[in-house]
Design goal:
The complex is a heterodimer of chains A (about 325) and B (about 325).
Chain A (H helix, E strand, L loop, with lengths): L2 E3 H15 L3 E5 L4 H11 E3 L4 H13 L3 E8 H4 L3 H14 L8 E7 L14 H5 L5 E3 L4 H13 L3 E7 L6 E3 L13 E4 L4 E5 L2 H14 L5 E5 L2 E3 L3 H11 L2 E8 L4 H10 L2 H6 L5 E5 L8 H7 L3 H13 L1
Parallel strand pairs in A: 2-3, 2-4, 4-5, 5-7, 6-7, 10-11, 10-13, 13-14
Antiparallel strand pairs in A: 1-8, 6-12, 9-11
Chain B lengths: L2 H28 L14 H8 L7 E3 L5 H7 L3 H8 L33 H15 L5 E6 L6 H12 L4 E7 L2 E2 L2 E2 H4 L16 E5 L3 H16 L5 E6 L18 H9 L2 H11 L5 H24 L16
Parallel strand pairs in B: 1-2, 2-3, 3-7, 6-7
Antiparallel strand pairs in B: 4-5
Helix pairs in contact in B: 1-2, 1-3, 1-10, 1-11, 2-3, 2-8, 4-11, 5-6
Classes of the chains: A alpha/beta (about 325), B alpha/beta (about 325).
Amino acid sequence: MRSITFHQATLEALQEEFRRDHKTVHLSTDVPAPLRQEFGAARIRATPISESSFVGAATGLAGSGFRPVVNIRMATFGFVAMDQMVNQAAKITYMFGGQARFPIVYRMSVGAGNSMAAQHSINPYPMFMNVPGLKIILPSTPYDAKGLLKTAVRDDNPVMSFEHSALVDLAGEVPEEEYLIPFGEAALRRRGSDVTVVALARMAHFAMDVAEELEKEGVSMEVIDPRTLVPLDTQAIRDSVARTGRLLVVDEACRTCGAAAEIVSRVVEDEAAFARLKARPVRVCGLDVPIPFSPPMERYAVPDRKRIAAAVRDLLKR
Amino acid sequence: MSTRKELLVEMYVRMITIRRFEERVAEDFQRKLIPGVVHSYIGQEAVAVGVCANLRREDRIVSNHRGHGHCIAKGADLDRMMAEIHGRKTGYCKGKGGSMHIADFSIGMLGANGIVAAGLPIAAGAAMAAQLEGGDRVAVVFFGDGACAEGEFHESLNLASIWRLPLVFVCENNHYGVNMPVREAMAVQHVAERAVAYGMPGRVVDGNDVEGVYDTSAQAVARARAGEGPSLLEFKTYRWRGHFEANTILDLRPRDEIEAWKEKCPIAALERKLVREEILSPKQLAAIDAQALARVEDSVRYALASPLPEPEDALEDVFCV
């Protein structure tokens, strides 16, 4: 199978969906040249740096029968348009009693690792999980990025796509033929019997590296990548924990009230999964600090392979 | 009757309907029949009616927290409005929105909004939709003077202008954002002066003169339909009642100022004109008024006879399926 980058995969997803549905519209400060060339300046809009206005305009477009895709670029810029995402788009279908659809895709890059300091390195998806009315996808491979983004464009609700900046140039197998990935279906990256490691976004790659390393020590790690946070494939995670009896959740986002906390809760709240636990669940998350600039501090603030491996070894002692 | 006369009568019907509707809502709120808060439109009727008289059913409007008048002016159903205000299952939003979130997408009413100025970017999107559709539909957004201090006001004017969107910005300057006088909130005298900064026409008009409102917005709507871009219209008006019906925020505006504006009642002014020009007799006016009142009373009966939602209905409509 051919291999393309994460970035190419997302571009292909949009090209295919924009060909398929002429009601699709793209809004962004930086215009993707291939989209502009193929679909023209009216549908592929270059916006001023004016997030509230163009994020809000997406809601008006969606409520008027269009399917806007908004590339906010860094998730941190999304905060400028927080009202339009959280107060408006997320609630509008509900507040109006379901009388209109609001198909909107917000793409935002996330993640630390490039010395971009506190504002430009965030992973804010957990706070959006706390807002009913938003779907959230968090792809970690080119294959998933393409399949999930295509599904997002066809969804009739606001969907946030959080894309880790360290994965943009990552290459991976993507078939030539069309496919979609449904929301709410986790990917079982690796089957194992000793411990379930649920790892999000870039952390899924770290977890796979650690699984390989620990295999040499005779540890059998199961790695699950949820791929979408809303909806979350709770069942796949519970089933896995029921088999392995141990749970580690790895997320680069801050620990407090994070996606990892939610995943742990959903497992321990389940009678069957709880009964099978051999050890207390463990989280390896970003520290509760703004991401620092200088590389030694930045590396310290987010999970790495070493910390994941240590947590797995520790879990197995219990 | 000539078209102009018919128009005046039609606008009178709408204005008196809004007035009677709002009076009844205020009354029922005081009687504790209505949950939450309601923001009364009394005193500003000429703006919604004069603007919307220029619109077609397929044109889109976006409203704000003081939205009942905009709904009625765009042709919303009184029964479903009143049912929504009373939190009933038969309301426009099945009781999920209430007074602040009434919408009727089937008539191009894209929703009231509880966040000041949040409707402006949404309206820019609706206008962009009209532009992409390629016809001559337009969008109109209603907002108060309070919204003009928000960033979204400035961002939306800019966006609409650079993209020449078929959008009419309608500022209902009722002189106060809750109790904050606009003269203290803004360094220029008129909101519409800001149109210059965004390269669009701006007009300052008496918002209690429905004909003036109609004529000014006719020009702005025509300009939008012709693909010439947005306009900023500022209608000077006044709300007769407090910011909202609850007494948790006191009305600190000067009593004599309120009374002076009541003397400039937009409905009484139109009634005088209709009688003076012999378009309607006082008896005919009274009949129209009685009819409006009857329709409002019907809507209250409909609302009160409608079931409340089941508690579990709260789980529906989070997502479209």
